[in-house]
Amino acid sequence: MINLLFFAAVLFSTPMTLERVVAVVGEEPVLNSDVVSLLIESGIAEEAAFTIDPSAASYQLAMDQLIEEKLLVEAARREGIYPAREEIQAAVDEAVGEMRSGFYTEQEFINYLASVGMTITALRDSYTVQLADKIASENYVRVKASAAMSAMPSDPVLFFNENPETVLEVLAPTNMSWIYLPVLPSGTEEAEAILSEVRTQIENGETTFSAAASTYSQDGTAVTGGDLGWFSRGDMAGSFEKVVYDLEPGQIEGPFLTPFGVHLVKLTDRNLDEGTVRASHIIIVKQLTPEDLNMTILMAEELSANLEAGMNFAEAVQNYSSDPDPSNSEGYLGTVNVGAWEGEMRDAVLDLAPGEVSSPVAVEQNMAVAIFKASEDQSIDWDEFSSEELNSMLQSVYWQNYYTAMIESLKDEIPFVVNL
To answer: Is 62 exposed, middle or buried (CB count within 10 Å of its CB: 0-12, 13-18, 19+)?
Structure first.
């Protein structure tokens, strides 16, 4: 969805020098402000986006993306699949309604628009142009995707082997290990003392785990005596699962820390065939702070420096990692499609050379910090993946291969000029 606050500011408040044409696709211009808007939406600070050199790689990438979008719009026009007026107006109504919902009253909304030199009519006109093109390009891609995927080959591995460059670009499969450091809350001494006393009372028969959970637990499971139900690996925080999966039915552990607070846990049942467990817990909630994350990052940076100085990675895994999978004693993650990762995680690992160790990076929504290592052996064993995983990967690679060829074909058919 278009960022209206920025969109209005660019169109109505910035110098006209910003509105220079940087490319023309067919008869449609790509404006410098279009590129700036896209850069800001991608996370670049406004000041930096407004002053960026057009020769910068990020500017060129954003401009190329906009050229691709214009090519798709023009192709949709040529094939008669540009959206009907009713479809466009429905999208405009939704967009304006979403923007209006951010204000308490209609008058506040009107006053805001007036403050940036815009009226509701002008807003709708702006949205009409932007959303019409957006829907057109999406319609064109959807039609082409349907036709392309119907012709998708049946053998994923054969296609991967025949298209290694696209596999590398889309999936970036990498044999990877990691050191996993959970971010734990500070200032938990009082909570740990309380739960230590509660555990003593339970073990002495003075109360039951369920009754204690109803009294002390600070999450929604208090009403069910702390019962978490059945769960499998990956359903809970890694630092919680690491403790729970080491227990036997009836056994209690804690107090221990996770990113959510201080816990006591009791394993109530285990299904060996399905690999699931049922447990109850008592939690005193402690919110993570930016300082907690910073402390974990500092620890990881010190560890990373030691690794660069010659510390053995496998020994570091044994001594420091809290990998939630107890069977993963060496921290090996197998073949990971890092091309599907996003943000800082992707940036940290995408260009690692074999044997190279990454900088520390926050993972699991800042609840852990990881150090990754690309394995020396980067030969990919596709047998590691299930047939469902292979088919999903094939769809991604095949579509990207098709999409790239489609864009190149449109560039040959539709005239465009870059004017930097």
So the answer is: buried
